[in-house]
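Model the whole thing, not chain by chain.
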Amino acid sequence: MSEFLQADRVAGAKATLERLRSNMAQAILGKDDVIEQLLVCLAAGGHLLIEDLPGVGKTTLAYALARSTDCAFSRIQFTSDLLPSDVTGVAIYDEATREFVFKPGPVFANIVLADEINRSPPKTQSALLEVMDRAKVTVDGQAHAVGSPFMVFATQNPVDYEGTFPLPESQMDRFLMRLRMGYPQHDDEIEILRTARSGYDAISLSAVASKADVAAIQALVPQVFVEDSVLDYILRIVAATRTEVEFKAGASVRGGLALRTAAQARALVKGRDFVLPDDVAELVPVVLAHRLALARQSGDALEERRSVGAHLKRILSALPPPA
Amino acid sequence: METRPPQLSLDELQLVRWLLGGLLMALSVATVFYLDINSEAMAAVALLGVLVALANPRLPARVHHWVHRLAFPAIVAFFVLDLRFTGQLLPAIVRLDLMLLLYRGISYRARRDDLQIVVLGLFLIVVAGVLTVSLLFAAQILVFTACALCLLMVVTIADSGEGGMSPKLAVRGVVPPWAAHAEWRRLLRRLWEVSDWRLLASAAGLFVGVVVVSGLLFLAIPRFQLENSLFLERFVTRKAMTGFNDSIKFGDITEITQDDSVAFNVDLSDPAQAPAQPYWRMVVLDEYKNGGFKLSAALRSELGREHTSANIQSGVNTGRGAPTWTFYVETGVSRYLPILGRFETLRFREAQNYRFSRDLSIVALRDEPASMTAYRVEGMQADSSSLRDPFFAARWRSRGPVGPPLQLGLQLSDPDKAVLARLDSEIGPTVGAKEFAAKAIDWLRAKHRYSLSPHFPDGAGDPLVRWMASSEPGHCELFAGALVLLARSEGIPARVVTGFKGGTWNAYSGNYTIRNSDAHAWAEVWDAPSASWLREDPLAVAAASAAKEKGDAAIAGLMDRSWSARLNSLRVFWYRRIVNFDQQSQAETLNAVKEATGSSGKWLRSAIADALARAKVWARGPWDGPRIAEVGAVLVLVGLVSRLLATGRWRLVTFGARGKGDPIRREAGRWLQRIDGPRALRADLERIRFGPAPSWPRPTDVFGRARRAAASSRRPARASSQSTS
């Protein structure tokens, strides 16, 4: 990093992220680690894949983030008959002006929840994935920029796989992280039960940051300093996944870049202008796991997730961090 | 910790294996050239085949499959026929080995075959080493060992690189992938890239260690006779190659003098008694016939019957105080052993078949020795200018018209005899052999010049007589022969003696070195009053006083400090150590090694003490301007050099692994691991370790805090442990 981050900008970013965290924690009880990783993903400007059973608060999480950052939120329920144009929008003929006008689809928002993304055929999925990659929608040769910041929350049900179109590995690579929500703790669930709420729209959260704040944080992340030995550590981890016999293929170069960016974002979330090896180690499971497939076919998707996680953990423990 | 250094690919490794295997074979095949077992042509073919296949690894695929099919039957058949017709086992085995190596060289090798070539090559090297006992053997076995170790390592790595699944047999007729794109220049570049000097240095260090340890073991173990235990020498016969034979033609000796290689080395137990101009006698030739001298049948019978023993007791007592002479005669000199004169005892290292004549002072082995011959002579008279011969004296006194030949024979035609008589008359009247010889030599030298390329005048009759009558230049054989003929014509018994004259004194190993160029021929004439043979060298130029010099003065005149002397001193060292007649030299060597190590330790200690003392004196001096500048310059120089070392091509010094290059970062990393101090301190340390350098707090301050934190965290622990105890 040639530019040297000014301490006040780092402190400002940290304060903003801290406000977001405490604000969201009011709505999502007992999921501080998930919130933190969500903020890391937000700061890194990445997209998120959440795999969990229905009804554990995925939508709430996305909505809470949108409300806290004063962002436009939209939700697309992916079904088998969903068309690309249902996602991106369509150009329709306007009788009054006698020309085609583009009618933006639900993807034109800042935070888009793509619920059960694997229920749609690949064509529809790919429409979303193009947006994720370039933050633009191209309809009839015209590019339309989606909102900024732009973040996709895609969800999948890891158990119910009947009639789904699993995302290919190349597309899994587009997601910066894959998270699991998990059930809340006993006390937290009691608290949830106590505060009867009708739906996610009923969450009363005030915005604690603006879109500009989020954009400023995202611009700051690439300037976070990564020392050579930490880069080396990242590369060693990525290289280890490539030589691991249990994996069909190792992490890609994009995977390594994602790990670096995420580590920079985490450093910023923690209020540092430089990356520690801990940042890297902490993020390896969420950043790399969904990019790896087992060499041996596993019967159950959940089983596979657990297995990949265990192998990553073993690789990490075998690689000493730089000292 | 480190990033993985660049590595050779499996194909490149296989190419290295091919290279090492080829080098190994070439190295061992080349040793056959020293062996002298009539296999030079085959060795040359094998060497060529191996080298060509080595240079072009795609070639073996083009070898016709019939070659593979017929190779082994043909080799076995050749071996059987070879054995049947030559009857010599060892040369046949060597040829078998050569053929197997050639076949292995021109076909692709699986792991099994690589191991085979190591064994085959080792056999050749050992055979050559034992048979020649040359210094080259030590060098060869060293290179071979290094080569073989590397090959075995590469074979193992390549094999495990292929998951231990490499085929047991190489596929024939198919270019393997590693050979298909083989390119030596690229391989060399890659080897250069992947070579890590530290690894190479440590490997070289280990190898040197192995060599030193095995050298010490070699010195320490009880010596055994390699040749006797292996019986190798018996399997090889040799023919004489040079002119030191029972007969010489004029020019033979001169031909030998053209060769500058070492003929033999002589160790002298007491250099103070070294003669300045030793005459190394080898053969006595008495019969002149058809333009050449030869050992007559009568004289041959004086050599007596053949003996087999390790000692020759001559029965002569030369008195006490005579030094011990140890001769190391190279191969191909002669089966006649050079000696100075009468001696008491001559000891070989082992039993030899020899003939010995005390009166002639000649020792002849049965065969031309196949390896370096060493013998030790005790009680030898160094000066053979007059050789007492009571046996001949008795015959001379009782000479009659018929009787044993008295070395007076002139098998010449009458005109030649007449010419001789005329020449004798030119010399003038003399009394006694001594005076005659002196006058004859004067006459000869007045008439003829010395030249290595003589010219015989045309005409009829004996060539030597013709030469004598003319005034053409001539070489030592002609002069010696002329003197002998003149003396005999005068009725004085005379004979030609061949051998070596002089030599140099090696300044490094302290011994005589006699080269083939020192070969010489001279005459011995009979002096009846003293009953001895007088050495008369028509070409002796040195004044009598110079020839009488002994010891230091003599050595000073012969001193040789050239490069070849330095090389030869290595050879002598090798002989002295490998050839031993008793356990004493071994003990001496061990003592020398012990003393050398002890004294070097002492020297090191004193040198360090010296340097410290000087440094103290220096530090006490006043700090003036020039001195500060001096120190500054040295510091700058050290900084520059270390920077160069750290960043240059070889990165001779690295600060740990890449990425931890900064020593300050490294220091912070160490503190981070050591202390679990206050959070602020850890944050600062983390910033120094991983953060951007411009944002660092002052490292010295942070490290100071870290030291204090570490100390304070230790103190309570100690206090608590004391309180509990």
